[in-house]
Amino acid sequence: MLQAGIVGLPNVGKSTLFNALTRSRKAEAQNYPFCTIEPNVGVVSVPDDRLEPLAGVVKSKKIIPAALEMVDIAGLVEGASKGEGLGNQFLANIREVAAIVQVVRCFEDADVVHNMGEIDPVRDIEVIETELILADLQSLGSQEIKVQKKARGGDKEAAKQLELIHRLVPYLNDGNAAFTLPLEEGEDKILPRLNLLSAIPVLYACNVSDSELENGSLLENVQAVREYAKKRGDARVCIISAQMESELIDFSPDEAAEYLSELGVSDSGVTGLIQETYRLLGLASYLTAGEQEVRAWTFTEGMKAPECAGVIHTDFEKGFIKAEIVSYQDLISAGSLQAARDAGRYRLEGKEYLVKDGDVINFRFA
Question: What predicted TM-score, i.e. pTM, was given to this entire model?
């Protein structure tokens, strides 16, 4: 399962957000730096508004949403690339994730110390990105020596890799993250092999107070993050209140809805954050529907029907014959499986079919 890492400076709300996302209290959330040392790992259900209506159509007894894995990583401080704080451990942990959710403190609270003094979300983002870039420059320096030898020996792949390294080094030295580099043909396959920290896609999570969530998009700190994100390859930005969501962990659904309503919101922002993280990882969901269960299955965008069948079981992929498919919207509009078939909404697709998000599929296999 692909992982997304929750990162940020100390005391920005990372562990509080992790507990909220995983509906647990696995991560210690205290008002002092480095209360998280070993990374906490949790599985998060992906909210999907399609599942309940689909279950109603097929009279299903059970709903199983898709899931993704989140990792709460130790807070980073300036100088991490040189081993400051828990820098070496932080960098080692972040190399294991496929996407970064960078929690950015946008709330004022005199009782919660900020290790750099005043609240300045753009400065905080730049501190973390600078450390990732510095670590990447060190890594590229070591890789360049090895790749040069292969390139001189006539290795064409090494020559292409060396060319990309030579483009990356000055780009990173100018303070740019690797994920924002405009790639030339074929470089999208080379870049991942360099294993660069600043090449990992990023989502910025603006953490605001519960009283500010309703009008969070108007906050000066949030607007500053949005402007910064535009310059960083139009990176995604979400507004959340980690503290609010953590308070809802022990509430019943009705109690939570009532509490949110009193604050003038319908959600703490966590639902959108999970969905955006899922997309940032390049993931989507196809659906299966029957009387026993309605389920969302995770696949990587660009996968073909046999590969998606293999998500359920390897035997499905090996013995794949056809995929019987109807779009979610067509099925809901028809009102039943049989009505959708009678209306000609179902179709048979073969091995080359690229599965789409929201496809309702029944696999035929030998």
Answer: 0.86
